[in-house]
Amino acid sequence: MYRKICILLLALVGFYPLVRAQLGVNLHANWWSGSIEQEFARSHGSEQAVGLSYWFRLKKRRLEMHPEVYAYRSVATGSTAGDRSVHGGIRVPVQAYFLDWESDCMCPTFSKQGLWLKKGLFAWGAPGLQFQPAKLAGTMEGGIGFDIGAGNILTIVPMLGYGYQTSQIQLANPAGYLVTQVRFFIRWDKENFFR
């Protein structure tokens, strides 16, 4: 099912290249804390997410929003079929470029004038909802990240932060986790984006 959702998201972007959108591919590695480790007594394993996001920002301020719909897969280390889960969610990542707040350029980070650290460093927060089997969980992640321009339409974004989830699959209690993430954004509106 996870592969079908990923293929569908990629096909939507492929068939609509003129839409002002970004394809966000997120690679996560989360380390869980608290009762989830006690309950399962082993490493949580790997987690991957693939999402489709739409980019917009405030005018004359470096505050960007990336509303996203995503599919999420989690596999525990040494897992059996019952330890694997696939679910979806929605979230609204917000990036605040606090060193370059007054910038009014509606262009990619590396089209801007100035120092690369000032242009690319940002704080981020991402409230969201995760649709788990038979329950809905609220999520909140936040941390720091950096934009790396790899050409005119590709941005690579490494991020580090901490997340909180109100409930977990098979457990009723909340949990916190360390987030390491790399996002790849492809901007499909090149003609409109580079004014």
Mean pLDDT across the residues is 71
The CATH architecture: Beta Barrel
Strands of the largest sheet, in order across it? 1-2-5-6-8-9-11-12
Overall outline: elongated
Global Rg: 18 Å
Order of helices and strands: HEHEEEEEEHEEEEEH
Q: Give the CATH topology.
A: Porin
Low-confidence stretches: 13-19, 40-44
How does this structure look, described?
The chain is built from 4 helices and 12 strands, in the order H-E-H-E-E-E-E-E-E-H-E-E-E-E-E-H. It is mostly beta strands and 195 residues long. It has one domain (2-193): Porin (Beta Barrel), CATH 2.40.160.20. An 8-stranded antiparallel beta barrel has the order 1-2-5-6-8-9-11-12. The longest helix is centred in the first third of the chain and has 14 residues, at 2-15. The protein is elongated. The N and C termini lie far apart (40 Å).
